[in-house]
Amino acid sequence: MEEARVESAAVRARGHAHRFNLAIRHPDNWMQVLRYCIVGGTGYVVNLVAFLIADRSMSYTLAFVLAFVLAATSNFVWNRVWTFRVRHGVPHHQYVRFLTVSAMALCLDLAVLRALVEAGGMAKVTAAAIAILVATPVSFLGNKIWTFQ
Predict the structure, then answer these.
(1) Any idea where the domains of the chain sit in the sequence?
(2) How far apart are CA 101 and CA 61, in angstroms?
(3) What pLDDT does residue 30 have?
(4) pLDDT (0 to 100) of residue 23
(5) What is the mean pLDDT of the chain?
């Protein structure tokens, strides 16, 4: 029984590896990555500016969450219209999925942010910038595979 489970897992892993290999050879996927990074760059600016403004009047953690939500909303619109060029599906359902992926990325963001600020003694804005960069690949894959499929 255990041997069958191991074999089944190996077959699934080979299938994922094959799909990944095909995906990286498809030029449209690289254009999506480029567009996603451009949208993410604008979201990065929105996030940092909103963080700088909000950090003046609330805790840095709450300011980071608020900035993240503003940037995520902007990114949803641009990724739906431009990056993935979605013409199917229900936008508000996709927005919920996008926010779910964003919330998972936010958890990663906050863990990195707090570790860098609390344990590493890093400046808050520098730590916020690094946290955003760490979570970006997780966010892209979640949105490509699940939100805008």
Answers:
(1) 27-147
(2) 19
(3) 87
(4) 67
(5) 89
Which of 32, 96, 36, 40 lies closest to 71 in space, CA to CA?
40
Indicate the residue type of 96.
V
Confidence check: pLDDT of 137 > 90? no
Cα 66–chain centre separation: 16
Q: Which band of pLDDT confidence, cut at 50, 70 and 90, is reported for residue 19?
A: low
Quote the tokens at residue 10.
């190996």
| Count of residues in the chain | 149
pTM for the model: 0.68
Checking 71-75 for CB contacts under 8 A at 24+ apart, the result is 71/43, 71/44, 71/46, 71/47, 72/43, 72/98, 72/99, 72/102, 74/42, 74/43, 74/46, 75/39, 75/40, 75/42, 75/43, 75/102
Half-sphere exposure of 38 (CA within 13 A, CB side): 11
Q: Within the chain, where are the H helices?
A: 2-24, 27-54, 60-78, 91-114, 124-142
